[in-house]
């Protein structure tokens, strides 16, 4: 089922990014649009420097499943 597939993708994704996304969603609910977009931008900037981001890009280029380590 579609919902199950989406949940499986999220759960098997990079744990650091999932944690950041959950935090931005939670904190952004009460924030202005400008503040929420700032939170998202900051989280993305931090995540772009992680080993998991590099693993995701490398796995995509090599046409294989990524092995995220949470780093």
TrEMBL record:
Q: Which UniProt keywords apply?
A: Lyase
The record's section on InterPro entries has: ClpP/crotonase-like_dom_sf, Enoyl-CoA_hydra_C
What residue ranges carry the coiled-coil annotation?
Answer: none
Q: Which domain of life is it from?
A: Archaea
Question: A Gene Ontology MF term for this entry?
Answer: hydro-lyase activity
Q: Which family is it part of?
A: Belongs to the enoyl-CoA hydratase/isomerase family.
**What is the name of the protein in this document?**
3-hydroxyacyl-CoA dehydrogenase NAD-binding protein
Q: Which organism's genome codes for this protein?
A: Natronolimnohabitans innermongolicus JCM 12255
């Amino acid at each position: 089922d579609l919902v199950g597939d989406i949940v499986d993708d999220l759960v098997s994704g990079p744990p650091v990014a999932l944690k950041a996304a959950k935090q931005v969603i939670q904190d952004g609910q009460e924030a202005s649009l400008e503040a929420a977009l700032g939170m998202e931008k900051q989280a993305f900037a931090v995540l772009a420097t992680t080993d998991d981001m590099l693993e995701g890009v490398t796995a995509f280029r090599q046409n294989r499943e990524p092995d995220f380590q949470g780093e």
